[in-house]
Amino acid sequence: MRLALLPLVVFVVVLALYIPTLAPGLLWGGGDFATFQTMAYLLEIQLPGGIFGHPLWVILAHPFTRLPIRDVAWRANLASAVFAAGALVLVFLTARRLTRSTPASLLATAALAVSHTFWTYAVMAKVYSLNALLLIACIYLLLLWGEKRRSGYLWGFAFLYGLSLLNHLVMATAAAGFLAYIGLIAWRCRGEPGLGKALLLAALAGGMGVAPYLFLLTGTGTTGSALGTVFGFLRGLGYVATRPQALFLGIGVGLALLLYQFPVTFIPGLLGLRCLGRQSGPEAWMLGLAALGNVLSLLASVDPRVLGGYWWNLHQYLLTYVVFALWIAVGFAALWPRLAGRKWAVGGVVLLTVVLPILVYALAPTVARPFVSNLPGFRPLPGRDNLTYVLSPWKHRETGARQFGESVLAALPPDSVLFADYSIWAVIRYLQVVEGARPDVELVQLSGDQVSLIRQYRDRPHLFLADVYRYYDLEGIGRYFEIQPFGPLYRLVGKGP
Fold first, then answer.
1. Are strands 489-494 and 481-486 parallel, antiparallel or unpaired?
2. Cα–Cα dist 57/37, whole Å
3. Comparison of pLDDT for 31 and 476, the residue scoring more
4. Helices 244-261 & 223-241, crossing angle to 10 degrees?
5. Per residue in 71-121, pLDDT tens?
6. Which of 88, 234, 262, 422 is the most buried (most CB within 10 A)?
7. SS3 state of residue 360
8. What are the b/e assignments for 142-159, b being 16+ CB within 10 Å?
């Protein structure tokens, strides 16, 4: 096969994996997935309530929601699959530029494609597969600039990296790696005509790229929130640095998750890290510092004061896994002379790289079930098996959110008011806003002082709670209303003045 066709083959093959395992539509998951599906359709660049969202993903996913296939939610999920497939094409091209080995690059790309976190966020509507695409595109452009010394690659990198913050602030964790690479290449080529001008224009391009992010940040009044994230990171680093137990917990969980992603390919990954480290070239510094920045940002979230906490942010290690895939390629390239020509060895490596992780994900829920009935802190939701949902990356059987949302709307009397927490509110909002279901129902998201909010509607005849989970102030609500089961809901009946 001609080398020029391999990127296309990679793109098609991984889509052939992701599309059949794509979430079929609406998803549970803290409400974020339904919210992203709604935002992509409406082209909302910020969350309801004026909270700064992830505009770049919304803008790029919006055209997918207009495709004439399936429903809007499925199309938004498809956008993530396409972004993931694009990222894997660039992983292959970047790995081949690093190693000059096509087999090693294909194996590394396959390892990342079937890794748990990458696969999971390739089949659901969220920003992380686009993060991966942006990161590897930046790395690829820098490698091209370092090799060919054409300023356009550097300017393209600078603009794209600045723009990537419009997708997610976690992209900032790669900054040290990128700056180190640029600095080392510039030092190596010091005195080269036009270098200073190229660097200056790159800085301007980066400023142009980051300008939309800064504009929206100030326009939505969330500058303080962004600064709070930075200060929280620094405070979190201080927390883990002074508490060895917290540091060991963070590192231990991170390593366990890495092994779950790459049960055998972690070996060539570590070998590749060692090989690049020995060379101590600009590429080694770029990849090493980019991964380190991401790891440190996650370790900082071990601090219980950090919003979301460590356990709920583990998926952000995805950027490290992209870098780790490049280390896997370097490791396989070092091992390939021993494998080439031995068909049984090559076949065994392919099975261990691709098939073994899939078997692990398939068996993990069954193996874990006798020891844990539910993952700590995970909310029981209709139609969702939490162990399977978390431990297996495929989501093609996740239909519970739509079934529950439709049953709720079908059960409500005309002109009802439904009070719901964010997870359920996001699903019902999608059905109302995107599909036009039950416009007579007023949907109210519960937050803050729930009792005062509900009492504002006390003169309405039909008031309902979506759930009685711990997110609801049942004690406070119960002082003014009787909470009566009503099909999948709970009716609120006033107790008097």
1. antiparallel
2. 11
3. 476
4. 100
5. 999 999 999 999 999 999 999 999 999 999 999 999 999 999 999 999 999
6. 88
7. helix
8. bbbbbeeeebebbbbbbb
Q: SS in 3 state form for 1-44?
A: CCHHHHHHHHHHHHHHHHCCCCCCCCCCCCCHHHHHHHHHHHCC
Q: How far apart (Å, rounded) are the C-alpha atoms in residues 147 and 348?
A: 35
**pLDDT tens-digit map of 462-489:** 999 999 998 999 999 999 999 999 999 9
Q: Tell me which residue of 357, 379, 413 sits closest to 114, measured CA to CA.
A: 357
Reported pTM: 0.94
Compute the distance between CA of residue 104 and CA of residue 106 in angstroms, rounded to an integer: 6
Whole-number Å distance between alpha carbons of 109 and 324: 11
Alpha-carbon distance of 96 to 91, in angstroms, equals 8
Kindly tell me the burial class for residue 433, based on how many C-beta atoms sit within 10 Å of its own C-beta (0-12, 13-18, 19 or more): middle
Predicted local confidence at residue 123, as pLDDT: 97
Closest by alpha carbon to 58, among 276, 212, 186? 212
Query: How many angstroms separate the most distant Cα atoms in the chain?
Result: 85
**Tokens at 187, concatenated:** 């030092």
